[in-house]
What we know:
The chain is α+β, with helices and mostly antiparallel strands.
Amino acid sequence: xxxxxxxxxxxxxxxxxxxxxxxxxxxxxxxxxxxxxxxxxxxxxxxxxxxxxxxxxxxxxxxxxxxxxxxxxxxxxxxxxxxxxxxxxxxxxxxxxxxxxxxxxxxxxxxxxxxxxxxxxxxxxxxxxxxxxxxxxxxxxxxxxxxxxxxxxxxxxxxxxxxxxxxxxxxxxxxxxxxxxxxxxxxxxxxxxxxxxxxxxxxxxxxxxxxxxxxxxxxxxxxxxxxxxxxxxxxxxxxxxxxxxxxxxxxxxxxxxxxxxxxxxxxxxxxxxxxxxxxxxxxxxxxxxxxxxxxxxxxxxxxxxxxxxxxxxxxxxxxxxxxxxxxxxxxxxxxxxxxxxxxxxxxxxxxxxxxxxxxxxxxxxxxxxxxxxxxxxxxxxxxxxxxxxxxxxxxxxxxxxxxxxxxxxxxxxxxxxxxxxx
Length: 422
């Protein structure tokens, strides 16, 4: 069997209880995919509806429904009476398991970025009505660096689904107390599991260890883990506070929402030294605060995070110069800048404001009409039209609408000022 539908099989990536995962070529698009193929014997068996097969069908049901830069896309699914497969986005860098062993741990800063992105992905899934239910290092794939994708939604619980989902799903080391007790699972159960994953990522150890399942479950329900900084001091007590809250015994002990958790993670991410660059979490939170971008989804904001050229500039540094050609758009992520024309002060820009929008819309590289200079140390995001054109059509449309709305508002304000002066 060298081909299934339009997919040309290349090599085996792994085998499971219900089938085989292949690296395959999508002969239509030319892209590599991870192809999960159900074994025919499983499909034909009398217990086709057993848990493991139900997970396969569950993942197939999510095809095309999760569009987020930190979720591995479920591209296509076919399940019939004789066979079935699910085509998934192929992520070549392995999974987080490789970074949970002593001697192979990530830096504190990199682990914080992975935590922030994972929480954002799970927040997005939850807002689509999906609880993952099987969060573990093996289900968080690495693209490169700190760029990750959460995958394997086979155990996911869809709040809108009609079927009854069994509770005996997940990996024992990552189960929440409520899952062990057979209670209803929500996003707090994923949050507990994510806390366990991050504990491993920061320390190289699992928070709960035992020689038997009953002993393990008793520890998860009743015992507090050792604070991560006691195992690895450079982790810091601020990480302790977040992880211990994520792994609270009761759902009410944990963060109310993924958003509040992500905000705390972003705050500690700011503690890294100035010249280590600008973290992705800082970029995302900066764009999240821009008023004109409020209608963009988190997924679209992440596209802009990766599409922008980000830099730190000192006070008195010229950002654009009057008369020089340019067509890029700028967002001021932090700090202040002044706008000058022929040496006269026209305006002062604050964090969250943009400039260069007219040149960006015209896209003709015409001379800039004013000079913009940093008043203080600033963090700046620059967007070139050619790079934005490589983002998704929806992202481009939303950004264009935001820019046009901003231009219209600014022209209306200028007209009001002119009317008052006459």
